[in-house]
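New here. Invent one.

***
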Amino acid sequence: MKPFTKGALVKALKICSIGILSILALLFILPFIFPEAISKKIKAFANESITSKLDFSGASLSFFNHFPSLTLTIKDVSILGSAPFQKDTLVGAKEVAFGIDVTTIFSDAIKINKIYFSNADINVKVNKEGKASYNIYKSSSTESTDTIASNTGLRLESIILENCNLHYDDESVPVAIIANNLNYTGKGDLSKSVFDLDTRMSADSFSFVYNGEAYVNKKPLKAKLITKVNTNSLALVFEKNRIRINHLPVFFEGHFDFLKNGYDMDFRLSSTKATLEEIISAIPPDLGTWLDDTKVKGKAKFNMQLKGIYSKEMNAAPDLDLSVDINGGYISHKNAPVPVENLLIRLDADIPSLNTDSMHVNIDTLCFTLGKGYFNAVSHTIGLAQPFINSVVKADIDLENWDRALGLNDIDLKGQCTIDFKANGKYTKAQNPAKWRKDIIITSIPVFQLQSTIKNGYVKFTSLPQALHDISFDIKSACADSNYRHTTVEIDNINAVALNNNIKGYAKIANPGEPEIEADITSSLKLEDIKQFIPVEKFNIAGDLVLAVKVKGVYSPEKKLFPVTEGKLQLQNGTLQTIYYPNPVQKINIITDIVNADGTLAGTAIQVQPVSFEFEGQPFTIKADIKNPDDVQYNIQSAGTIDLGKIYKVFAVNGYDVTGLIEANLNIKGKQSDAAAGKYQLLVNSGELKLKEVKLYAESFPLPFTIHTGIFGFKQDKMWFNEFNGGYGSSSFIMNGYLNNVINYFVGNDEKLYGKFSVKSDYINVSEFTAFASGDSTQQYTTDTATGQGVVMIPDNLSVSLDANIKKVNYDSIFINDFKGQLAVDTGKITLKDVAFKLIDASFKMNASYYGETPGKAFFDFKVKADSFSIAKAYNEIPMFRAMASSASSIQGITGLDYTLAGRLDKNMNVVYPSLKGGGVLTLKQVKLMGFKMMNAVSRETDYKDLKDADVKGVAVKTKINNNIITLERVKLRIAGLRPRFEGQVSFDGMLNLKGRIGLPPLGIIGIPLMVSGTSDEPNVKLKRDKEGKLLQEKEDEAAEE
């Protein structure tokens, strides 16, 4: 072997250098040799593969962008989403690069094996119906697929995201995932139907939000995942997955299957060797800075599983199980003198089908020590909206030590707090049985006992200059039998001081249903000082407030008892301004005295010295002197103008709306008993209230009454309504008249309000008055389409008569014109007397009554006369006529009516036919029985063609109605020499039981007997004699007795 010389070394280096330079040259030159061919094929593939719009500013081909891969890079990429998100950007990236298999450059089919996203914003949306924005891949026909495959193929081996932001928002679950500065590498043979996806992922900030609640919030994330993907069954199996959320290591496994109508999932998340510090680092909110200054120790483990089927169509959701175990916990912030030690938490929770009403939360142990202090709690709860609670809490804590140990930044606390609390039972709510409109009340509370004290308390918000100090109170409260009316509350040694403001005293309340009260509370506040020691963001207040009240006794209006009371409330030069309106209510002055010396209702006196305020330059005052609530003696004066719309905006209570202008100048003085006894000469009531565009709400009606203009006048016992121009929903009216017994009505129990009015209207929509009409009661209605459920309920304590003149009435799409007559409302009943109106172009006269017994049931009766009306119009426009004359769909002609009927309406204001009782006469004046199926069937069976579509006139048809059956008395006809007659039964279900006879010419002495059975639509005629036929089954109105 020849020795290795210097010349040989130089020669070898030259060869290597030439080789390397040649390779580099080739890498540089190749993209220029094939740029157009490769670019065209890639672009053609992209255009043929996706349905959404793709935009980019330019493209380049290089080995060096993602060395050693040859990549086609498109810049400033924008890809829009699929419908219904076709206007939203799915991907916006600085660069998207396609890795190309170099070995396929010289072949007809170029293969793409990698995709790179650089500096991309990926925004994935799924709506509530499950339609996603990422369905952009085109489903091609076989021919087009083959064509694409022959030129460019997608055989992905890896997907790479570099410095990307991901926002996934799925409203169908609902889940949101947000990852910022996301780096992701997924490797696997993605062209196979079953493959393993090896993933490496990191994000500077990761958030996971379920149903609006952030379970992971802006935490660093690292993950190593192996996922088995089955594209045939759309199944994912997660195995050997390790995740680190901030500092917390988590093991993740399970599966996720896509079903036809949802998902089948089993996610298991666990961390068995974690520390308390690691768990705190992972949960929201971000406590990174706090952890840097806090020593946290302790062992921790947790397990969470989400398992089951999620399907909106099947109304199915998975079960969630969670367990947390923390042992030996220790927390000490900076140089806290006393740490939280011996922290022990054992918690188990499960939410079957993600239904919080079935949620179980079991806190077996929650305890810690704090120096000589301690906290111990055990709790078991079931449900959330109306939970069962079994809890015990005992604590004795120095609040300053607690504050410093935890390092609370926003607040400073001091004082000694003790708690001794036990509760066992269920908290429930239900509809108030005394109210027919929705009124949810508390029906049960847990049996409980509570004793708690605060001594030498101190609270200072770090953002404010002053503290609330010298805080103390002793609370004792209990309920022995789950009836909240039997709750007792005692608050002794109440004291708090801030600047020169203070409150002190005590209060005791027992038996809230008939409260026994003992209290002595005094307070002096400069309201403008409050914002110096309590965070006040939404309003600004000022003024000098003084409160002094002593109370002892029982409050029971039924027993005519009132606590012995000596109370005073005084506010001078007050101001109130909120963020909802730029101008304040100012110059507020209130002085109110309440005195009761003997413990009786009659011994109570309330004196309101002139209450005054100014709003936007408009002053308003009211003065009141009220004595003896058992027989109210009143003296009230008021003057000024209030813009209700603007004053509402000062307070801006969500869900309500008030508008309108009130100008007051009134003086009312008198005694309740004088008004009740008719001693009107002793009443001194005068003045007026002017209203403009005011909305009024009443429990008896679902929509607001709007008064466009009107004047309330007061004179002695009457309250006059002068030219009230108003509306209700789509209805409008002009009203004049008066009410009397107003004082008794408002201050007495079960007193009636009397009145007399004349009403004119162009249009009234009765359907909008129903008890449960649809729509928001605060909404403005301008059409006649707002209908709902529930009968029209009339207040029992209203006795008012109206002379009505209404051009058009809409009752369940039955239109009544020129309605005139007297309407009386008394004791929950409406009576119509001598009413005339036009319906189906005919004149009617009627007397009627209506009574709404419950929101789901009402009764009516009427007697109606009509000389001439069109049968065709009656059938088409009146549902009740259509039901009573179900075979009259094609009958033409004029008839008269004289009928009496009574019955019941259901919750939809529809007639309950088994409830109908009555009778009367229908006069066929000139009628053609066109298409009358029963008569045409008789014609076919008897072979008398003249009976088909016959003309009749001057025939009186007498019927009676009872238990869903119309009984037809014998009716005789004359048709083309024939003398047919009929009698029998017809049900509201359309069943027939009629017998008849066709009298033959010349005198009808000889005839053909017949029976008609079946239904009105399919009558069955038999030529035979049967005395009664098959009697129809009666139906009684069972619900009327409920």
